[in-house]
Every structure is written in structure tokens, then in C-alpha cells.
Amino acid sequence: MSELTLTVMRLGFLAVLWLFVIVAIQVIRSDLFGTKVNPRSSRRGGAPTAAGAGAGTAPTAGRPAPGPGPGGNAAAQTQTQGGGGRRRGAPTQLVVVQGSLAGTTVALQGQTITLGRAHDSTIVLDDDYASSRHARIYPDQTGQWTVEDLGSTNGTYLDRQRLTAPTPLQPGMPIRIGRTVIELRK
Amino acid sequence: MSTYDLSSGAGRPVRRRTPAGRPVSRRRGNTTISPQEAPNRRNTELALLVFAVLLPVLAYANVGLAMDSELPGGMLEYGLGMGSLALVAHLLVRRCAPYADPLMLPLAILLNGLGVVMIWRLDKAGKLLSGNFRAAQNQLMWSALGIALFIGVMVFLKDHRVLQRYTYISMVAALVLLAAPAFFPARAEDFGAKIWIRMGGFSIQPGEFAKVILTVFFAGYLMVKRDALALASRRFMGLYLPRGRDLGPIVVIWLLSLLILIFENDLGTSFLFFGLFVVMLYVATERTSWILFGLLMSVGGATAVAMTTSHVKTRIDAWLDPMAAFAPKPPKGSTEQIGQSLMALGSGGVTGSGLGQGRSWLINFAAKSDFILGSFGEELGLTGLMAIFLLYALLVQRGLRTALAARDPFGKLFAVGLASAMALQVFVVAGGVTGLIPLTGMTMPFLAQGGSSVVANWALIAILLKISDSARRPGVEPAPATEGQGGPAR
Fold it and tell me: Under 8 Å CB-to-CB from B57, ≥6 apart: which residues?
């Protein structure tokens, strides 16, 4: 083999090896550089009805602040509910804000989320004040996310109110279980 | 998920994703933050796997062309062998852990493949390498066995949390595995370290398996005890000092690791064992004082043992003066290996001598096992060695990322433990080969020749993939209200 071929192969192999490393890093780019911001290309969810078309930009305006104008938003939400698409005001993730699991997120895709110390809970709370099966968060028939206390010893608090019945949740409302605080985010 | 052009049905022009369209939506602040990319990334994994299988095949071609001026005959078989192993593993991940991390399997396959190539290349050195025997076939067979265990773990371990039940059983199992080699007779060719169990013509290194099993125990134990270890402490000079009785566990582990050092003469296993515990203790309690204690205890213990045991003392002497063995009158018991490995790394330079063109067979039998990094350093140079270290770093990073994403404390600690075990092992081996720390008898995960190591590390990867699957899984049953119909049908 000629010297030149061998040199080319040697450098070529190193280049390909590094290419693999770079491709691998590209795959986990979102871990390294944070989440990606996608501009929305079109309004998603129910526009075509009269209410949706009339409201036009109303949901957009109402979006940054969680639920200031329940009128317009709720109307748009119930409109699209029948179709079942992803609603504009709907929360997309559940975030643990305080406690030993702070920073954990769960994507909300219509599943029931169970909270508690039991090992098969969706979020296993390592919290001395939590019960085995403490609470659950689920979408009710209309798709509204709801929190329910499952007869826990120390109770589940929404803001400062102890829950006694299934309660609808708005994004940003802190759910407190022992030392853990959880909220829904959009 | 609804699709993007639903609103186009109302007779208005389709708003496409054009560059002109973007600023408009930006100005309205009409943006979404996507939490992660699509959760299931199996296709990415497949693409990377193809890459990871082709890269060693290229290395084969390179070795063959350099050494025999022709494409090696076995190239296709090795490529197909690694390729089919990778494919089986991938299909199983698709089936059993569909949301698992996309990077770990390709990284492991690539490292394993590169290891097989380098071993094959050193086999070809023939008589030049003293005590040479065909090891590449064996290594490929062990890799297949490793993948078999990988498949076993994937199929039978439905949920990693099951392992939590076996906290104390795994402690006993790990101790038995760690202690077993001490009861087998030492043999001359083991160079003092007693870390093998030999049965017939067949030997295993139980420490590699103990690494995984011990992590189960540490994770289960610390999950229960971490509050006592973290909270009950006094503050002294900015450090949280634990109560005397809480020092119990760390002292017990320390004594055990010293016993390993004394009876098995192995710095590596001892260091890995103790280091793993200190790392997990720190992660579980967030108390820096444990690291301080751990460092003091390990340095103190190692020094004390080095004073008394001759084998450990030789290792430390060889580390302090690696070239002593080349002196006209070498001191008794000195070894040339570290010096040779440093020379190999040096002659490799920045871009290496090229695959198949180095002289790393001069490191003798260990060129394929403990010193395989030296062989890579010579033939691929600093550039290639850095890439290999980055591959390990990525593997460890994925493990730690899995721990961050895991939703249960046991899974978090378990994943941290497995990732740090791998990190510590890479550090110990690489440090030994480059002369940073005294040489130990550990092997480079996946890369080095050695059956137990390959098999145990495949099991480790399988467990990490399982944990990452359960951590990234979006949820089980999609409710009919929000999923399924995918937006208004139009």
C-alpha cells in the first residue's frame, strides 16, 4: 500500500470517528442547549366554528397570563372539546416545583397521574408527609384536568385549601403535598 | 396531536411555514416551548447503530490494507456479526423499551466493535506478541453472550423498581462475588491480583458483576437511610459533620474495601467499590462532607496497605517511576508495562501511526486487555483517544441524564450508581495506563479483551436503558378525550 493511501485512510478514519461523536452530540442537543422554541405556523385547535373564528386572536392574547379572561378562553376550550384536539389553554406538562423531586416534569397526554410513596406511582414522592397513594391528577369527561385526594393522611392542598372533593385545575395553581409542590404548565 | 393546516379548511389561503410567515407569528408572541423532541427516538438510534457498525468495518479495512495490502477476508463476517448483534438488540429495545435513550446502545456497540478490531489487529501481530492467541473470535463470542444477557434483562426486568425488593439479598450476593476469588488459589500468571474464579479452562472476573449488583444494594439502602444520613448532623466550620453512629455504613464499606485490597491485592476493585459508595452517598444526601471523609479514608487506607503489602507497593513504585524497569539494574519486582504504554502513547503523537501500523504488540500480552488504551493511543493518536474518551463521557452523561429524568428515588440513585461505576472504571483504567494513578487490574468497559467485563457491561447498559425507558415514557393509557381523534375530522 502506498504511503499516501495509508495517510488518507488514517486521517479519514479519525475524521469519521469524530463525525460519530459530533452526530451523537447533535442527538442530545436539546439536553445541552435547553428546549427549542418553535414558532407556531398556524392556529391549532378549533378555529372553524363561529365562536373560534370570531374570537380570532382572543386566545392568543389571553395566553401568557393563565386564565385571566375565563369567558373567551373557556368558550374556545369547550368549542374544541367535542373535536378533541389539543386545546389552546390546555396544560401540556406537570412540573414538580419544590421538594426532593424538584425539576421533574411529566408530559400530559391524557393519562392519569398518580402521586404517592407507592413504587408504582407515576411520580414516586419521597416525602415523609405523603401517603402511599396520596392523590391523582386526571382529565375528567370534558378534558378538564382535575386533582383528587385519595384519602391521604396529611391532605393535599390547592393553594392553601385542603382538598375535599375532586377540584378542577388551572395551569400555575400550586398543588402542595407535604414538602412537595406541583403545578401544571402550558 | 392536531396537524398544522387544520385552519386552512375554511376557504382561506393555506398559511404555510414560509420564512415570511415566521416573523408574523413571532411578533404576536405566538410560540410554543416543546419540552423534548418526540419522545420515541428509535429511528435515530437505528441510524446511529448503522454508523456504529460501519465504523469498525472501516477500521478492519484499514488494518487489512495496512498490514496485508488487501481487504481482510473476515471483514464481511465480522461486520455481519456485529451488525446482526446490533440489530437484534435494537429490535428488542423497540419492543421492550420503546422510549429508551437513543444514544446508549450505539455508543456501546461502537466501543465493543472498536475493541474487537483492535484485538483482531493484535492477533495478527502473530509471534511478535509473546503469548499471543486468537482472541478476536472469543471476544466476538463474549459480545454475543453479552447481548444475550442484554436481551434477558430487557425481557425479564419489566420494571427496575422490582430490584428494590432485593436490596439486602443483593448485598449478600455482591459480597459473596467479591470475596470468592480470595478463596481460589493464586496463579503465577495473574501477577498477584486475585480477581478471577477459574473453573476448568474457563475463568470469570466476579468483580465486574458485583459492580452492578452492589449498585442495587447501595441504591436501595441509601434510599431508605438518606434522611438520617443527611439531616442528623452538626455544623462545624461550614461542614456538616455526621453523627458518630451515622458513620457506621461508610466505615463498614471502607473496611470491606480494605479487606479486598489486602486479600485480593487489587487496587481497582477496592477503589471502584469504595468510590461508588461515596459518590452515591453524596448524591443521596447532598452533603459535601461525605466526599471529604471518603477521600481522606481512601488515601489513608491505601497508604497504610501500601506500606505493608508488597504487591501494592510494587504497583505504587512502578507508578512513581515507570521507567525504573529499563534501568541497567531494575529493582526487584518492577514492571515494564507502564513505561511501555507511555512510550506507545508518545509514539502515537497527535494523529497516531495509523491502524495496523503501530508497534503496540511490544506491550506483550496486556496490549489487548489492560493496556488496550495504549494500543489505541499509538495507532489513533491523541485525536482518536480523545474521541474514545468522549464516547465514554457521552455514555456516562446519558446515564446521569437518565437519573435526572427518573421519577422515582430508587431509579435515580440506581442510574447514578451505574453511570458512576462506569465513569470510575474508565478513570481508573485510563489513569493507570497514562500513569496518572497507580495501575490496577481493571479492564476498560467494552473495549478490552475479557469476557466477564463485556457481559457485565452489557447488562449494565440494559438496566440503564430500562430506567431511561420508564423515565421518558409519557404515560400509559391515553384518555379518549384528548388523544386518538387527532383534531376535528375535516
Answer: B75, B78, B79, B82
Rounded Cα–Cα distance for residues B132 and B490 (Å) = 71
Q: Tell me the domain boundaries of chain B.
A: 2-30+38-472
- For chain B, what percentages of helix, strand and coil (3-state, to nearest 5) are there? 70, 5, 25
- What gap in Å lies between CA A94 and CA A122, rounded to an integer? 11
10 Å CB burial of residue A15 (0-12, 13-18, 19+) is: exposed
- Taking each continuous run of H as one helix and of E as one strand, the counts in chain A are 5, 12
pLDDT tens digits along B387-439:
999 999 999 999 999 998 888 889 999 999 999 999 999 999 999 889 898 88
Name the DSSP letter for residue A63: S
Backbone dihedral angles phi then psi of residue B326, each to the nearest 5 degrees: -95, 0
Q: Are B234 and B481 in contact (CB under 8 A)?
A: no
Distance CA A10, CA B59 (A): 9
Reference A114, options A86, A165, A159, A156; nearest CA is A156
| Distance to chain B for A163, nearest Cα, Å | 24
Residue pLDDT, tens place only, B56-79: 999 989 888 888 888 887 778 888
| Parallel/antiparallel/unpaired status of strands A123-124 and A113-116 | parallel
Minimum-distance CB partner of A9 among B35, B44, B62: B62
Yes or no: say if B187 and B201 are a contact pair by the CB < 8 Å rule.
Answer: no
Alpha-carbon B435 to chain mean position:
21
CB A110, CB B478: distance < 8 Å? yes
Phi-psi region of B239 (alpha: psi -120 to 50; beta: other; left: phi over 0): beta
Spatial CB neighbours of B423, under 8 Å, sequence gap ≥ 6: B392, B396
pLDDT of residue B427: 93
Chain B nearest-CA distance from A119, in A, is 7
Strands, E, within B117-269: which ranges? 197-199, 202-204, 233-236, 239-242
What's the first-to-final CA gap in chain B, in angstroms?
Answer: 15
> Quick one: closest CA in B to A78, which residue?
B481
Helix axes B206-231, B267-285, angle to 10 degrees: 30
- Measuring CA to CA, which residue among B74, B438, B420 is closest to residue B277? B420
Contacts of B488 in chain A (CB under 8 A): 46, 48, 80, 83-85
Give the helix/strand (H/E) hosting A96.
Answer: strand A93-98
ipTM given for this complex: 0.82
| Of B442, B444, B426, nearest in space to B375 by CA | B444
Q: How many helices (H) and strands (E) in chain B? A: 15, 5
In terms of Cα–Cα distance, which of B154, B78, B90 is closest to B116? B78
Interface test with A, best of B7, B8, B121 (most A CBs within 10 A): B7
Separation CA A15–CA A94 (nearest Å): 43
Enumerate the residues of chain A whose CB falls inside 8 A of the CB of residue B62.
Answer: 9-10, 13
| Residues of chain B positioned with their CB less than 8 A from the CB of A11 | 351
- CB distance B222 to B284 below 8 Å: yes
pLDDT (tens digit per residue) in B443-482: 889 998 888 889 999 999 999 999 999 888 765 433 333 3
Cell 372539546 belongs to A81
